[in-house]
């Protein structure tokens, strides 16, 4: 697996077009999107859910396999310190 840098990520601006363009031009057949929530709460925001849905639609059109979207945070109670869209049945 080779990490791909997504331009704009440093500024906190990620779009489905940026993710899919980096994946497609990088020659990947599949990909996992991983990011953190600086607040530490790994639960997906409405924007995370919307972005995931848009990336999934685009990936299907481009015949790319969107394996998972993982949000990293801190462990909260019995919740692990991450959220996986795949594990939650959202991919």
Q: Provide the CATH top-level class.
A: Alpha Beta
Q: What is the count of helical runs?
A: 2
Percent helix, as a range, is 25-40%
Structural class call reads alpha+beta
How is the biggest beta sheet arranged?
3 strands, mixed
The average pLDDT value, as a whole number, equals: 87
Poorly predicted parts: none
Distance between the termini: 20 Å
Identify the CATH architecture. Answer: 3-Layer(aba) Sandwich
Name the beta content range.
15-25%
The CATH topology label is Cytidine Deaminase, domain 2
- Main-sheet strand order equals 1-2-3
- Name the quaternary structure: single chain
Shape by Cα distribution:
globular
List keywords for this structure.
Cytidine Deaminase, domain 2; 91 residues; 2 helices; alpha+beta
Q: Would you kindly provide a brief summary of this structure?
A:
With 91 residues, this protein is an alpha+beta fold. 29% of the residues lie in helices and 20% in strands.
Protein described:
The protein has 91 residues and is an alpha+beta fold. The protein is built from two helices and three strands. It has helices at residues 16-25, 46-61; strands at residues 30-36, 65-72, 82-84. It has a three-stranded mixed β-sheet, covered by helices on one side.
Ordered list of secondary-structure elements with their pairings:
Blueprint: H1 16-25, E1 30-36, H2 46-61, E2 65-72, E3 82-84
Parallel strand pairs: 1-2
Antiparallel strand pairs: 2-3
Helix pairs in contact: 1-2
């Amino acid at each position: 697996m080779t990490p791909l840098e997504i331009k704009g990520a440093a500024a906190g601006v990620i779009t489905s077009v940026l993710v899919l363009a980096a994946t497609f031009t990088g020659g990947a057949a599949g990909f996992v999107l991983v990011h953190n929530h600086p607040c530490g709460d790994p639960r997906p925001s409405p924007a995370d859910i919307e972005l995931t849905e848009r990336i999934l639609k685009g990936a299907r059109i481009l015949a790319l396999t969107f394996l998972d979207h993982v949000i990293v945070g801190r462990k909260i109670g019995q919740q692990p310190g991450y959220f996986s869209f795949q594990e939650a049945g959202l991919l």
